[in-house]
Amino acid sequence: MTILQASNLSHKQSTGLRFLRWFVAGFGSGWLPKAPGTWGSLAALPVGVWIWMTWQWQGLFIASLVLLVLGCMACVPVLKNMTEQDPGWIVVDEWVGQWLCMAIVSIYADLTLFVVFLCFLAFRLFDIWKPFPIRQLEHWGPSWWSIMFDDVVAGVMGAGLLLLFGWVFYAS
Predict the structure, then answer these.
(1) Which residues contact 152 (CB under 8 A, 6 or more apart)?
(2) Is residue 2, in this structure, part of any structural domain at all?
(3) What is the pLDDT of residues 97-113, one digit of tens each?
(4) CB 3.0-4.6 Å disulfide test: which of 85, 111, 127, 150 passes with 137?
């Protein structure tokens, strides 16, 4: 391999790594100042609503799973040479959790602006509060796994809370 080929290879790798960082930063939303998780969740909302409007809850659920797999795969090389195991700017997990919450709730209710707002609040509540088992998932398994799956559970628990409140409200 020549020096020119080696320099091109390292340039390609750094470009690839820059793209992966941008991707796991929620397409850049995690780089906004103060509360990157909240910014990431907010950035996920219009994209999630568009997916839901186009393909309903099934499309949003599938998009969540695809983003989960891609996020796990992208976190591996991004985290490889980092000392911090769960950098705050990685918010692809917030996108997944937010979309899962919206997908589950939208099985039973249309995603009106109010419902989307409630999904945002419920997901952020569980993502910040981290009740059992969410906090435990942060410290279990490889870092790429724990980064992603605590937000999956937060999204499911947020949806569960909203569905419980909706059931109680409409049952009375």
Answers:
(1) 68, 93, 96, 97, 100
(2) no
(3) 999 999 999 999 999 99
(4) 150
